[in-house]
Amino acid sequence: MLEFSAIISAVKPRERTDQYVILAALYFLEAHRTPVTARQVTDLLTLHLGRSAPANVNASLRSYTSFVEAAGAVRPLRWSLTNKGLDQLRSLSGLDLMTPVTESDFQTDIAFLCALQDPEFTALLRAGGGAERWQTAGSARFTHVFRTTELARKSGKSLSVVGTVSTSMGLTAAAIATTHLILQFKPRIVAMTGIAAGTRGRDRQFGDVLVADPSVDYSSGKVVLENGIRGFQPDPYPIGLNARLRCVLRRYQSTPQVFESIRHRWKGRLPCTSNRLHLGPVGAADQVIDDATRILEIQRNWRKLIGVEMETYGVYRACHEAPEPKPRVVSFKSVCDFAAEKKDSWQAYAAFTAAEFAFEFFRSEWDALWPTT
Fold this sequence. Notes:
Layout: H1 4-8, H2 18-28, E1 36-37, H3 38-49, H4 57-63, E2 68-70, E3 78-81, H5 83-93, E4 108-114, H6 117-127, E5 135-137, E6 146-152, E7 158-165, H7 171-185, E8 187-198, E9 209-217, E10 221-226, E11 229-234, H8 243-250, H9 257-265, E12 277-284, H10 292-299, E13 307-309, H11 312-320, E14 328-337, H12 347-369
């Protein structure tokens, strides 16, 4: 929060009208959060401006009908600074005047996004208790069909959940769907679940959950011709996880119990050993890779690459550039192949482990992610 004197000094003395200083006082007193009385405004202005303070703050507040509003009729009246009043103060002062994000600014706890109806969104619906527990919600003006449900935390309280499917695979469709989710439901966190191609190494196997940290658009860069040989100069803009989210997730890299539980709930064929969680760079581009040598090319620039897929970077970028209140973002994608000889035999299991882990993680760790909520 800026000092009150800094807000006053943002304009020249001749521009410090009664309206300006009263709006400035309301902002400094955080009347955009909690209503204040005319006496509180008067006391602040008298303290800083002395005899230059407005003579009748109460009358002025009553006249600023679009910039302030009375919170009830109980005397003494308490006044709130409206969004239009805050915009007016920004316009007059030229200051950014950021407002702190509070829990009330969010409308939904978790927004899930999948790229495919089947097997990804089908697995998500099942992880949420079955399709019958999800209700259609949201405005029909939006392209996507949204489904909502509740997730019971281990503390006994419930989380509000919304989910949808992109109109197609790929970065663009994922970014658009994410933006629609954010604008309509204002989630605290956006989570993508689904399937991905893993990279060989560190005992990665079918059904292992990959968390993109960071997500990288590996196709971003410049194609060059040097000495008659075509080459590629990468120019990525990697986007990583929220630091708190990263630290909580790291505990699961050495906690196999949750994956044993998920494994026992699966009725089909299983990998030979229990699954694991991997955090690291995950590449994204509008390409289906069925060539292991392409993975090696990408690893020249990202040696710790743990997988590739087609959507996560669009989701991360949409959240990164979203309007306030910005959600956190995470992607849980499970290994269904290793980018060579693609088959569908492990897709259903991979979608299952990704969705089940996501729900179990939020059910268990919500209080750890937001200790003050």
